[in-house]
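Example (one chain per record):
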Amino acid sequence: MSFAVPVALLALWEIASRLAVVSPRYFPAPTTIAWVLADRFVEGDLGAQSLVTLARLACAFALAAVPGVLLGLLMGIARPVRAAIEPYIAFIFPVPKITLLPFLLIILGVGEPAFVLTGATSAFFQIVISTLGGVQTLDPRLLEAGRNYGAHGARLFWKVILPAALPSIFTGLRLGLGLALVSIVAVEFIAAKSGLGHLVYRHWQMLSTPEMYAAFVLVGALGLALTRGLRALQARILTWQDDPGRL
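Predicted structure:
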């Protein structure tokens, strides 16, 4: 049932394009886009440019996830650290991170470091905030139970605090991954000469709309696959979520 609406919309689009109800030049039929996608992914540049975007995304996400989770946990368990850093997080978080690109280009020059860091900053703050929220919303009864069973210090952290915060951490990672992908594609659209974002921009300039839509579809498919993969990893790791008594 969840596929009925998208399938119906695609069928309507196909008919409208074939009958020229909408301009096929600007709205090519979905079957045409699918054919271009299949043909250019293997033989053309879609596959290679997908790997470029994926490599940038992987670097950006790694740069954001590790320090983001660590800082969020530290802020959650150390009140002085949270008091010192939280105002800066709250100040910077609402700012669209793509606006940092000109400053990074001035400092680092036009190249991969500036592109990757723009994507990393987009994910970093979301991961920090989600991780911090997971620690702050920890049920006090869990802490009390842990202490009653002799868990203190590092043992309390590893056995109680971290497991309880993991669902929020994974939520932050999924959101951060999506934000990083959006920023990377935007950077490729604006400044880079490679990647799926650049393909969308280049084919838009040339009015090669089937190729433009094909690159756009690949961006969406990449985001869907990666976020679903993180969700599957979360379900595999956090098996105790279905059985809270195991925590």
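Caption: DSSP finds ten helices and no strands in the chain.
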